[in-house]
Amino acid sequence: MLMESGMSHESANAQSTFEVNKAVAAIALLVQETGASMYSVMKMLYLADKAHLEQHGRFITGDRYVAMKQGPVPSSAYNMIKHVRGEPVRRDGDETAMRYLACNVQTHEITIKEMPDLDELSQSDIECLTEIAGIYRRVGKWAVRDMAHDDAWEKAWRPNRAFQLFRKSVSMPLEAIAAEVDDTGELLAYLQNQHPGVAESR
After folding, report:
1. Per-residue model confidence as pLDDT tens for the chain (202 residues)
2. Which residues contact 21 (CB under 8 A, 6 or more apart)?
3. I want to staple 182 with a disulfide (CB 3.0 to 4.6 A). Which of 97, 147, 170, 187 is the partner?
């Protein structure tokens, strides 16, 4: 949806180590631009990551996605905000999130306690995040939710919905998300070169 003519790929791996500082900066930027609550921010992160994957061959924060009943969720960022909200979910870097962000346990509203350094984000990161924030402002949270409920989420969640009482989340493979934005096969070929063994498993 945000593709320009040609596709440029940054050297960073598409699915690498989760970068806490980038995630905190990305969340703060989306909150600053939209005032959205926790669940809408998670969906905007997914849409921004899809856009960045399409244009630059990597996710913004290196997060991994899971399908849940209400849509795709960036696993590490979601757990980080749940900890900020007061739940006993911990991971390395939560103290960073606690410094900059707060989340209301009733309304799920995220507030910025102190603005993090947006220099943690590259220019391309910021462009994708602000574009998705602009879409949110134009069409609203329900339309953004529908945009996030794409084929990659459907293919991961729908076959497992009978087990949703036992499994709250299902992994969303990187290739499935890439297929959502890849018209030519160029992105999938690039990702396969970055992940030896992926091509053989298809």
Report:
1. 333 333 343 433 445 689 999 999 999 999 999 999 999 999 999 999 999 998 898 999 999 999 998 899 999 999 999 999 988 766 767 889 999 999 999 999 999 999 999 999 999 999 999 999 999 999 999 999 999 999 999 988 887 655 555 668 889 988 889 888 766 556 666 666 655 444 333 3
2. 93, 96, 116, 117, 120
3. 187
CA distances to 38, 65, 100 from 76, in Å: 13, 9, 17
Sorted by where each begins, the domain ranges of the chain are 20-185
What count of other Cβ atoms lies within 10 Å of the Cβ of residue 107? Answer: 9
Tell me how far the alpha carbon of residue 202 is from its chain's centroid.
Answer: 24
Strand partners, 68: 71
